[in-house]
Structure to design on (1094 residues):
């Protein structure tokens, strides 16, 4: 058997290299599948609208593009006005249905892609800053592949596991002295070992790069690789001329070089220190300490050694600044690595690696060794102990709650009523607007949110109620620097039988300075959305957040978020536990089934305001001068409630409160149309 | 036994490599603290320039110490005109006019706002805020009692007791403590050194096949194991305290003051709801002790992992993986209201600001237990479990090798 084969057998079979490699690829793929989030999730959530625009402007910026954007912006804003006018004309009887459909159809088509236009317009504002090297393209794929400088921790561990035993295996069993007695056991054998180790690392590194490329190609698509690198905002200020695909090749080459240097370092450490612990410790420290210890993000790229190359995307980034809040100046947050600096770092790293190789050969070593003991039986017993300990320590809770849901209305997002209490936002003291509850029997009033320590917390004045459970939203802040930063968004469930609170949803929004190593990063997109939430409701499986003209559903179990509805002008939204009711651009009421994700338009109902009750849909009939009507949800029959035009409406139990359009005074009327009384002048 | 511990300590930890690593890591630690100061302190030349530092310490003589009405009036006499001038952002930015302390009126305004007015206002208002917390908590007690929620009643009673009589009476330079309590890099360094140092404790004999021989000696069984464990504890405590002392001294020297040692912990705005009524100096000591307790749990975990293998390769990787897993989980739950998930992780003791920055409680048989006590109890539980596991693994080894023979010998007799 040749030396190659023997060494390969030892590395891959005896030292379980194949097992570790397989485990690495499985874990790597699993972590990419589970943890990878699109750089711009809005694009994914509005893919069809965005792509419709992108297809028209893809490529370099031109005057034609400029005209396209100004025309399209004008077209969208005029379409909005025109559609409103056409709709008004139709409901006022000035247009026939055919004419209305003919006029509204094209306008709706224009407005359909409005969110997509906003996204492409954001890209346009970025490209306009430097049109020469910034092109329009779909960025999520390339951003995922290139726009990060995270150290692949699993790759680091794999290299340690594979390379440390190459020489360490013999040292461990003190068989290295025998090497001298073997015919080809000196330098010759050491070269074989080094060659095999480096070849393995190179192949694995290329396979890894291929896997990542394949993953992003499959998940997002990596088209337009010939576009300039600066098309991605991560590299926006870079002065290096490269296309996206070339950048990927450069990064891969950098990672390959870095990984090979790291492998040589491990080999050198193992030959020099002759102990596993010392080898692993020194090799790990060389990588991890500069990675986590350097204050300026770019410093690690100026440091000769494998680290910079293993995360080589930074070599392609440009200078980045942030404004100093105390002085009128810009502070550097990332300093570009010039080509000359890169050459020096590369040359020094290469020289160091060659020197280490020479040192290894001088201290050449080799010998084979015996097998290992199996400790799995003992390990499995310990696993059992740990599982039991985990069970004891963690405990387990469950809260399966099924049954009917109370009705949610967007217009009543600041109030709710259950059997015992009425909850509402008390605005009598403008300096202390708060959510209060009122005992229906005794009339006693008190604060609903009973946190005695209100600082660094902001409670939003929106609630959602379902039976005895009432929910509210809050933001927690930290003040680890000199400014307060939002740290978390939470939805709290209050069991109103005993006012016990429980967190049912939490989202980390801030990274701040108070993180340990910065392993968990919050997304800017999440921050934007969760800090602009108007209202929310929920069911057993999901949370529904209303904000920025959208309703997004967040899965309770996985935390997966997606846009389910786009409602540019939010007037009325209601939820009955399964179906979401909302008003579309044509002032029709649409039912969205959250179980089947299907939509149905309620026929003959035109309105801009409605309130859902348990059996009826109360609405201001656009076809009858905004008078209050009720649609029976069981048999779909209409019933008129008032004979006067109404400006606004809200419902409280069996009472309807409305503002008369003629005298602008507030009235109360029973839901059956009786007892119409003036309550406020 | 003491001799045995001393011998084990010398054998495993008195190594050139460990001493070299300690020295190198200490230097790195000081460099990191220097970068924290240069990158964050309002008095560093990188953030604000040298003039702020000079002016701060000049003004500090006038405004430090007990907060009095006279001092407040004097400060506001400087600040109010600046606030007025900068209110509509039309004031001149002319460089160093005669009536400015720094380059222009905006910089003066920023200087006094961030260094004196905001911290002094916070200190002055704290008494009223704490009183408000006590009132709200007492109100809650009445409410929860009326609806029969005894857990919340007791929780609010604890909060009322905690905040009763809180006030900040003096003004001092707290920036050093502000960044000191958030500093974790030294813990990471200590963790790496512990991981390295502890790998050889049970493996050195195994690697040289001397573990069997050890069992034949007089003190070679459980006694040696205990000596190894005690020596490891001493090593971890030594490493930790060395780094915590380096931290404190470096922060004090680089920030130029540790004046605020006698100020209460809640003088730091992020600790407005501090779960303990201790001074910053006391907190520094307490934090060091709690951090060390956390490191000991990790040390036991590293020892247990090393017991399972015959060389350091997989134990080191597994230890590193475990440590990063715990750090990741801790980061994910930092600031979270899900207290139990936060405190079950022993790494919370290492970043113990999470335990002391806010009064949080976990229910224990209907009783609200402060989160820091619960975290310590969890750490003790982890420690006991890991210790038991180590003893099982090591004893099993002894029994298998020595026990069978002993049994055979006994049967023959």
């Amino acid at each position: 058997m040749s030396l190659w084969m023997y060494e390969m057998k030892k590395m891959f079979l005896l030292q379980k290299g194949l097992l570790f490699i397989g485990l690495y690829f499985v874990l790597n793929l699993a972590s990419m599948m589970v943890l990878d989030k699109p750089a711009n999730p809005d694009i994914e959530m509005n893919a069809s609208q965005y792509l419709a625009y992108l297809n028209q402007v893809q490529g370099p910026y031109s005057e034609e593009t400029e005209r396209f954007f100004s025309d399209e912006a004008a077209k969208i804003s005029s379409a909005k006005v025109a559609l409103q006018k056409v709709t008004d004309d139709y409901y006022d009887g000035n247009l026939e249905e055919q004419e209305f459909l003919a006029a509204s159809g094209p306008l709706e088509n224009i407005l359909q892609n409005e969110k997509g236009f906003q996204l492409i317009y954001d890209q346009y504002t970025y490209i306009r800053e430097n049109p020469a090297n910034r092109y329009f393209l779909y960025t999520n794929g390339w951003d995922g592949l290139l726009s990060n400088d995270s150290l692949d921790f699993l790759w680091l561990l794999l290299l340690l596991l594979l390379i440390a035993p190459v020489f360490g295996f013999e040292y461990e069993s003190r068989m290295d002295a025998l090497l001298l007695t073997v015919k080809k056991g000196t330098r010759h054998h050491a070269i074989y070992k080094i060659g095999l180790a480096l070849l393995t690392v190179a192949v694995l590194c290329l396979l890894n790069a291929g896997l990542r490329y394949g993953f992003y190609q499959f998940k997002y698509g990596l088209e337009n690789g010939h576009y300039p690198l600066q098309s991605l905002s991560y590299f926006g200020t870079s002065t290096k001329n490269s296309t996206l695909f070339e950048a990927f090749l450069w990064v891969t080459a950098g990672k390959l070089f870095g990984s090979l240097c790291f492998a040589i370092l491990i080999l050198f450490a193992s030959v020099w220190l002759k102990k596993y612990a010392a080898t692993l410790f020194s090799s790990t420290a060389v990588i991890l300490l500069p990675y986590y210890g350097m204050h300026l993000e770019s410093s690690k790229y100026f440091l000769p050694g494998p680290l910079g190359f293993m995360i080589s995307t930074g070599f392609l980034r440009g200078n980045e600044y942030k404004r100093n809040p105390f002085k009128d100046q810009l502070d550097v947050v990332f300093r570009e690595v010039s080509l000359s600096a890169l050459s020096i770092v590369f040359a020094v790293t290469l020289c160091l690696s060659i020197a280490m190789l020479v040192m290894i050969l001088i201290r050449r070593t080799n010998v084979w060794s015996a097998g290992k003991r199996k400790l799995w039986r003992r390990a499995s017993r310990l696993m059992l102990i740990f599982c039991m300990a985990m069970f004891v320590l963690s405990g387990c809770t469950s809260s399966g709650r099924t049954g009917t849901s109370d009705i949610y209305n967007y217009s009543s997002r600041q109030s709710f009523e259950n059997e015992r209490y009425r909850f509402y936002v008390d605005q009598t003291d403008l300096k202390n607007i708060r959510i209060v509850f009122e005992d229906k029997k005794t009339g006693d009033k008190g604060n609903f949110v009973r946190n005695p320590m209100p600082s660094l917390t902001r409670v939003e004045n929106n609630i959602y109620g379902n039976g005895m459970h009432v929910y509210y939203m809050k933001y927690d802040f930290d003040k680890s620097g000199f400014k307060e930063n939002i740290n978390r968004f939470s939805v709290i469930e209050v069991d109103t039988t005993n006012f016990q609170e429980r967190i049912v949803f939490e989202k980390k929004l801030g990274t701040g300075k108070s993180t340990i190593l910065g392993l968990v990063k919050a997304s800017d997109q999440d921050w934007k959305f969760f800090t602009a939430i108007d209202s929310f409701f929920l069911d057993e499986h999901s949370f529904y957040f209303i904000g920025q003209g959208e309703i997004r559903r967040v899965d309770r179990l996985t935390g997966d978020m997606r846009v389910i509805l786009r409602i540019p002008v939010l007037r009325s939204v209601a939820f009955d536990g399964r179906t979401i009711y909302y008003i579309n651009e044509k002032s029709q009421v649409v039912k969205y089934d959250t179980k089947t994700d299907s939509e149905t338009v309620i026929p003959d109902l035109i309105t801009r305001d409605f309130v859902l009750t348990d059996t009826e849909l109360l609405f201001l009939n656009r076809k009858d001068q905004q008078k209050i009507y009720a649609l029976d949800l069981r048999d779909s029959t209409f019933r008129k409630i008032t004979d006067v035009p109404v400006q606004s409406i809200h419902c409280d139990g069996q009472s309807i409160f409305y503002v008369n359009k003629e005298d602008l005074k507030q009235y109360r009327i029973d839901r059956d149309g009786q007892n119409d009384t003036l309550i406020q002048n | 036994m003491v001799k045995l511990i001393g011998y084990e300590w010398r054998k495993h930890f008195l190594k050139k490599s460990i001493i070299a690593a300690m020295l190198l890591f200490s230097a790195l630690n000081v460099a990191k603290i220097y970068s924290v100061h240069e990158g964050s302190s309002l008095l560093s030349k990188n953030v604000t320039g040298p003039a702020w530092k000079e002016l701060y310490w000049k003004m500090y003589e006038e405004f430090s110490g007990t907060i009095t009405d006279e001092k407040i009036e004097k400060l506001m006499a400087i600040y109010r005109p600046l606030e007025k001038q900068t209110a509509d952002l039309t004031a001149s930015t002319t460089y160093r006019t005669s009536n400015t302390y720094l380059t222009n009126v905006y910089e003066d305004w920023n200087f006094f706002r961030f260094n004196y007015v905001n911290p002094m206002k916070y200190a002055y208002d704290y008494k009223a805020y704490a009183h408000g917390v006590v009132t709200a908590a007492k109100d809650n007690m009445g409410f929860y009692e009326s609806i029969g929620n005894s857990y919340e009643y007791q929780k609010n009673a604890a909060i009322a007791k905690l905040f009763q009589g809180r006030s900040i009476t003096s003004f001092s330079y707290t920036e050093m403590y502000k960044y000191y309590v958030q500093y974790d890099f030294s813990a990471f360094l200590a963790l790496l050194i512990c991981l390295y140092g502890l790998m050889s404790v049970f493996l050195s004999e195994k690697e040289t096949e001397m573990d069997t021989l050890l069992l034949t000696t007089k003190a070679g069984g459980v006694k040696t194991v205990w000596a190894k464990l005690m020596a490891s504890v001493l090593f971890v405590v030594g490493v930790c305290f060395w780094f915590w002392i380096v931290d404190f001294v470096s922060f004090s020297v680089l920030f130029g003051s540790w004046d605020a040692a006698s100020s209460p912990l809640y003088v730091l705005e992020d600790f407005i709801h501090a779960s303990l009524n201790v001074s910053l100096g006391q907190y520094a000591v307490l934090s060091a002790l709690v951090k060390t307790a956390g490191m000991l749990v990790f040390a036991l975990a590293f020892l247990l992992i090393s017991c399972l293998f015959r060389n350091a390769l997989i134990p080191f990787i597994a230890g590193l993986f475990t440590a990063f897993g715990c750090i990741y989980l801790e980061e994910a739950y930092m600031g979270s209201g899900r207290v139990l998930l936060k405190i079950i992780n022993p790494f919370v003791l290492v970043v113990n600001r999470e335990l002391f920055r806010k009064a949080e409680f976990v229910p224990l048989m209907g009783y609200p237990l402060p989160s820091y006590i619960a975290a310590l109890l969890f750490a003790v539980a982890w420690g006991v479990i890991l210790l038991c596991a180590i003893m099982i693994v090591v004893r099993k080894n002894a029994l298998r090798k020595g026990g069978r023979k002993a049994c055979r010998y006994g049967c023959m007799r």
Chain A touches chain B through 76 residues (CB under 8 Å). The radius of gyration of chain A is 33 Å. Residues 366-375, 391-402 of chain A have pLDDT under 50 and may be disordered. The first helix of chain A runs from residue 3 to 14.
